[in-house]
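The following record pairs a protein chain with its ligand, iron/sulfur cluster.
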Amino acid sequence: MKEAVAGELADAYDSRLIDEVRANGYRHVSGRLTLHLAHEFGFCYGVDRAVDYAYQARRRFPGRNVFLTGEIIHNPHVNDRLRDEGIRFLSDPDERSETLGPDDVVILPAFGVTVSDMAQLSSQGCTLVDTTCGSVLNVWKNVIRYARDGFTSVIHGKVKHEETRATASQALKYPDGRYLVVLNREEATVVCDYIRLGGDRDGFLARFGAAASPGFDPDRDLVRVGCANQTTMLMTESLEIGEMFGAAMRERYGEAALADHFRAFDTICSATQERQDAVIALLDQHPLDLMVVVGGYNSSNTCNLARICADRVTTLHIAEPDCLVSATEIRHRPVGAPSTASGLEVVSKDWLPGTGQLTVGLTAGASTPNNIVGEVIRRLDKFANGTG
Ligand code: SF4
């Protein structure tokens, strides 16, 4: 079946231009434009596999309804194509997961689903096509182990992100399992201060209650913690947060007792890490006038690539090629804005320097296929060289 859909996938998502740019040392030179493409960008192994399985599922069950629990990955173009294939989305307002039964096929996305959603769909007898990425399963393994050993999972992630919700639910597989989600260093600092000094319990719950397991008690549940993370967070921030918790526990309980109170595993996936490393290498090697980052506005790993770039150079995060409206107008998501599906998009004018040589960097998040990246290069070329 894999072979049967290979041609279809290549037609839908590959790009000859990208192959050429790669062969040319990840460089595209045309007129006044020199474009440098990050050496690792776009579809990761987990997304590749998930999209492949979705196409295979459509073929394997031709007469049956095939559903996705929600977006398979955070890329509007890929999700629209799956809709065109006849795959339905349970997240759509007119779909009802409660009415599904043994005749229905449900694809679970690369970032997984919660334990309760999985149990519900299984109990209804649906045929499940599970595309949960191995790197996500690795995080779950650690979280389950923390829960088994009486450690609260502190998850560096976005509390509403599908992957983080799924990961947090794994902590509840044991009766005493607990979790707490922290978004960033600032939140980690508040929690670490509580570990060190205690404090206002009600104030803590008012701030973190919605990001914690039911019945969370900071006085009881911050005594033993294990760190984990959403696989697509900023690696440097996840590592730093892990160190912050280790330091707080060391201060509170002493070095000799540290192992009884603190555990950590690096659960950033290798694909996320490689894309972050590659964009840093690109920024180190080439002085740029502009950096363009392509990917869904609700794609966590894309937003983090944009954050890395924005510290160093003017950076425009776009969702699709059409965001490059003209040589003088661009639609983009301001870097650092909250990553919500509806996205906060703004229109900027005069984004492209009008004359002289132009050096642009380009990367794309793990859910962006090559054909989209190739089309972005075509439009950049057209607008930079006044041929559009
Ligand atoms: S970003 Fe990482 S964890 Fe997520 S699907 Fe890709 S490889 Fe898997």
